[in-house]
Amino acid sequence: MSQPARGELLYEGKAKQVYATDDPSLVWIHYKDDATAFNGLKKASIAGKGEVNCRISTKLLELTAAGGVPTALVRALGPRDQLCLKVDIIPVEVVVRNRLAGSLARRLGQEEGLVLPRPVVEHFYKSDALNDPQINEDVAMAMGWARSWELAAMREYALTVNALLLEFWGGLNIDLVDFKLEFGRAGHTVLLADEITPDGSRLWERGTGRHLDKDVFRRDLGDLSLVYQELVTKVFADTPAA
Ligand code: TMP
Ligand code: ASP
């Protein structure tokens, strides 16, 4: 497969850059080492983070595609670069939770850790200016951010991704506590877009409850760079060296 030519920078987010390519239907995504938390209030550069996130995201997006959820990923271009279909991001973030943690635990005034009897799906409006407020599907429809059938597809895809990821992380003795997904439109279809990474997931080591995700940075629990190296080693333990 020929390497596409990287064009102009179209968009720079907190953790990734999106570039045009010589094909208008494709974008080149570059994962940065930058880490932010609390809507950018806390910032640092974490050595190797871009590569860890990109490698893990590529693997998990391939796994979800194989499990029947269409994704925007076309293929990896290198250890911290991906070729993806160009999509219009739907400004509705979908969070799936298997255990009580983070903002839901805070909202309910509860300790983290309770195992939920069934997965909980939540929606947030993707807006840095408003700090991603929680919304529901009615608000998303009323504001014209997503149509009813799109929200239904997003929910079904998110729950399928959850089942696939529970099995994947469980196989590594890691509990998938929660994660966030973003979706995009390409033509008349809804695709899983953005990333599936330890930046956007809570991953607790089974038995110890040790955090193997970006909460290490958010909560000053240790050296995120070392934790991410440990995680990537577990994820690719069965992969022969190239
Ligand atoms: P929350 O408990 O803070 O609502 O987060 C739920 C999940 O979503 C957690 O795995 C982290 C992820 N997340 C993001 O990826 N980006 C964000 O901006 C926030 C607030 C959470
Ligand atoms: N991604 C968001 C930020 O950069 C929030 C977070 O992940 O905690 O601020």
Helix content: 25-40%
Kindly provide the radius of gyration, computed on alpha-carbon positions and rounded to a whole number of angstroms. 17 Å
Using the coordinates above, name the CATH class of the largest domain.
Alpha Beta
- Count of all domains: 2
* CATH-level-2 architecture of the largest domain: 2-Layer Sandwich
- For CATH, the homologous superfamily of the largest domain is named as ATP-grasp fold, B domain
Biggest pleated sheet: 7 strands, antiparallel
Q: Report how far apart the termini are.
A: 18 Å
- Average pLDDT rating: 97
Tally the helices: 6
Strand-and-helix sequence, N→C? EEEEEHEEEEHEEHHEEEHH
Secondary-structure content class: alpha+beta
Bulk shape:
globular
Model description:
This protein folds into 2 domains: 6-85, Phosphorylase Kinase, domain 1 (2-Layer Sandwich); 88-223, 2-Layer Sandwich (D-amino Acid Aminotransferase, Chain A, domain 1), CATH 3.30.470. The radius of gyration is 17 Å and the shape is globular. It has helices at 49-66, 102-108, 137-142, 148-171, 215-218, 224-235, and strands spanning 6-12, 16-21, 26-31, 34-37, 42-45, 73-78, 81-85, 88-89, 92-99, 115-125, 134-135, 174-186, 189-193, 201-205. It has 242 residues and is α+β, with helices and mostly antiparallel strands. Strands 8, 9, 10, 11, 12, 13 and 14 form a 7-stranded antiparallel beta sheet that branches. A 5-stranded antiparallel beta sheet has the order 1-2-3-7-6. Residues 14, 36-40, 214, 218 line the site of aspartic acid.
